[in-house]
Amino acid sequence: MPGITLGDTVPNLEVETTNGTFKLHDYFADSWTVLFSHPGDFTPVCTTELGAMAKYAHEFDKRGVKLLGLSCDDVQSHKDWIKDIEAFTHGSKVKYPIIADPNKEIIPQLNMIDPIENGPSRALHIVGPDSKIKLSFLYPSTTGRNMDEVLRALDSLLMASKHNNKIATPVNWKPDEPVVISPAVSDEEAKKMFPQGFKTADLPSKKGYLRHTQVS
Ligand code: BEZ
Q: Which residues form the active site (predicted)?
């Protein structure tokens, strides 16, 4: 996927949104942000996705994480569409801003393009407080995203960041489950870093690289 990717800084564009005009880095400052794009307003899958984001907003609030949508229509169209989204979700309010991009000038700069359709995609970047991309999803327009997976991936990023990336989260990990210790950490370091202890899986190779520990 050409364009900005993991580790890159999101360009500090000035964006017009349903909640006013601001520079992206001002919005990203001091918290994590889930930035998610949509092919267009008044489309069925997007309506369900933006509604789900509104329903899940309290989960993102609890984690101190901001939401920022983007759809390739203008602000007035977004405001009209929000009435449909809120009606569809039976009253969940769309309080997060939605960026207007009626001329499709912003999405290529954010690398939120579907290369197959050569148009706007169902992309999602999780952006850190340093305005750098920490995780990206790219889905085709025919596949709606899974908000539980967005939250789960976000929880993994927050947990790894809290532990200076000395831990990682294994397959299907959920909060409160054991994590694994990074291969960059020796057993000696791990003993100091994780006084609660860790368990090394006994595998045929005897390489001792799969070590689980419990952190909070
Ligand atoms: C949708 O959001 O429903 C959608 C958008 C573009 C193409 C197909 C579906």
A: 46
Query: Does any ligand 1 atom lie closer than 6 A to the CB of residue 43?
Result: yes
The pTM score is: 0.95
**C-alpha of residue 70 to centroid of ligand 1, in Å:** 14
Rounded CA-CA distance 158/42 in Å is: 33
Task: Establish whether domains 8-145 and 167-213 are of one fold.
Answer: no
| CATH architecture, domain defined by 167-213 | 2-Layer Sandwich (3.30)
CATH architecture group of domain 8-145: 3-Layer(aba) Sandwich (3.40)
DSSP character string of 172-191: T--TTS-EEE-TTS-HHHHH
The whole-angstrom separation of Cα 117 and Cα 120 is 8
Residue 120 CB–ligand 1 contact under 6 Å: no
Residue 98: closest CA among 122, 124, 72, 129: 72
Residue-wise pLDDT for 130-170, tens only, equals 999 999 999 999 999 999 999 999 999 999 999 999 999 99
Sign, Cα dihedral of 150, 152, 155, 159: negative
Domain chopping of the chain, boundaries: 8-145, 167-213
Instruction: Answer yes or no: are the C-beta atoms of 132 and 47 closer than 8 Å.
Output: no
